[in-house]
Design a protein that fits this description.
The chain contains 15 helices and 23 strands. It has 451 residues and is of the alpha/beta class. Residues 370-443 form the Alpha-D-phosphohexomutase C-terminal domain.
């Protein structure tokens, strides 16, 4: 049962989970979420049709009906869940993972995420314990629903005139290709696409924009075509990342700050903005003068979407390239985020400002990026790192709700166990490169004792 994680069900298909798992998830889901209707969508991975068939069989055997929207981005499933009033939905996807992976993202009313803490853990327990799947006498029916036009119309509300821009877009052979061209043809400008066909084998590169090797072709395109910005989506289009006009990758947390020019400046909103525990201090320092009140919370949609709703935040984001919006049911959408950013970049260009110059005004610190350590003794290593630095220097702030974030006068670090992979993750930020390197090296030294 290694496929059940904090945010979703995910793993190598027929290794970590199989058709039987998908059937049982489908069978137990209507009972878990107390509904007789379940919305189902899927990405284009080769195993997705098999998982879909097993999932649907389980749902209908439980007596519930299925509304199948077919191939979809994950945010399309969120849109349909909230817009059509479903109490349960499943997107079959492994998001950014390689082609042999697959999984299921579960949502409930208003597109709120269902994670291990609020439901998936119970389904895992029922499957592990051998809970019987007693078929209902009246099998549920299956109907099909085409939401593509409605979803595109919704996204178009955030499209601005991009006629002055040259844009490079890498669709990662993923689900963004289902809708983005129809949206962007209304934007104007010169757009160059790569890996723009939907292909569940991901022939261009693995659909994970956080891996440096996967953005090389986009960086080359941006430089060769002299683009103003590069845009890259992950496999299911719930995440998006960017390069500037020089091809330099922009840390996704910094784009939370840049979005302030739309929500706080252009729209004139004031209120709470959510960031995750790994975010640069520069984000809050940039947004607070615009009228934002920063809130910091755990990593992952299962936590972030619910938190943004709880605090009635305007928008939020994560280091992993998820961006959440009150206007999108407090959910994340890579395409919506990219449209907002493109509008900002168009405005900046009209004022003679390049994207790299705008980011330079935000980025004040030296950042290590997230460093992964594959170790068994995660908790012991976390405690050792935390205790060492706290004893060495008096912290100015301390957070302990997702690993630890410990802040000092000139630097901070976050250390946390991954919720989806067998890693301990460490990230640090400092006022100088020299101080950053010194702290990272010491953390490496401490963690190495637990390998």
């Amino acid at each position: 049962m290694g496929a059940f994680h904090a945010y979703d069900i995910r793993g190598i298909y027929n290794v970590d989970f199989d058709r039987e798992t998908a059937y049982k998830v489908g069978f137990f889901l209507p009972h878990l979420l107390e509904t007789d209707k379940v919305l189902v969508g899927r990405d284009a991975r080769l195993s997705s049709p098999q998982i879909r068939d097993a999932l649907v069989e389980g749902i209908t055997d439980a007596g519930a009906s299925v509304t199948d929207i077919g191939l979809a981005t994950t945010p399309m499933v969120y849109y349909a869940t909230a817009s059509y009033g479903f109490k349960a939905s499943v997107q079959i996807t492994a998001s950014h993972n390689p082609k042999e992976y697959n999984g299921m993202k579960v949502s409930t009313s208003n597109a709120l995420p269902v994670g291990k803490e609020n439901g998936l853990g119970l389904i895992e327990e029922w499957i592990k314990s051998g809970k019987e799947c007693r078929k209902e006498k009246q099998k549920g029916n299956v109907e099909f629903l085409d939401i593509r036009a409605g979803y595109i119309a919704f996204q178009m509300k955030y499209l601005k005139d991009c006629s002055s821009l040259k844009i490079g877009m890498d669709l990662s052979n993923g689900m963004a290709a289902l809708v983005i061209k129809d949206i962007m043809k209304q934007a104007g400008g010169e757009i160059s696409y790569i890996f723009d066909t939907i292909d569940g084998t991901f022939p261009g590169h693995d659909p994970n924009p956080l891996v440096a090797a996967n953005i090389v072709k986009l960086q080359e395109l941006v430089i060769q075509q002299k683009c103003d910005i590069g845009v890259i989506y992950d496999g299911d289009a719930d995440r998006v990342m960017f390069t500037d006009e020089t091809g330099r990758f922009i840390s996704p947390d910094l784009m939370i700050a840049l979005m302030g020019h739309y929500w706080l400046e252009e729209k004139g909103l004031r209120g709470k903005v959510l960031q995750d525990i790994r975010s640069s201090k520069a984000v809050g320092e940039y947004l607070e003068p615009m009228g934002a009140k920063m809130e910091t919370w755990k990593v992952g949609r299962a936590f972030a979407a619910r938190k943004l709703r709880e605090i009635e935040g305007i928008y939020g984001g994560e280091l992993a390239g998820h961006y959440y919006f009150r206007d999108f049911f407090y959910s994340d959408s890579g395409i919506m985020a990219s449209l907002i950013i493109l509008g900002i970049v168009s405005r900046l260009k009209a004022d003679g400002i390049k994207l790299s110059q705008a980011i330079a005004k935000i980025e004040k610190y030296r950042n290590s990026g997230e460093i992964n350590f594959r170790i068994e003794q995660k908790e012991q290593a976390m405690e050792a790192v935390c205790n060492y630095f706290k004893n060495e220097e008096q912290p100015t702030a301390f957070m302990d709700f997702d690993g630890y974030r410990v802040e000092f006068r000139q630097w901070w670090f976050n250390i946390r166990p991954s919720n989806t992979e067998p890693y301990l993750r460490f990230i640090a930020e400092a006022t100088t490169t020299e101080l950053l390197e010194q702290k990272v090296e010491k953390a490496r030294e401490i963690i190495s004792e637990f390998r």
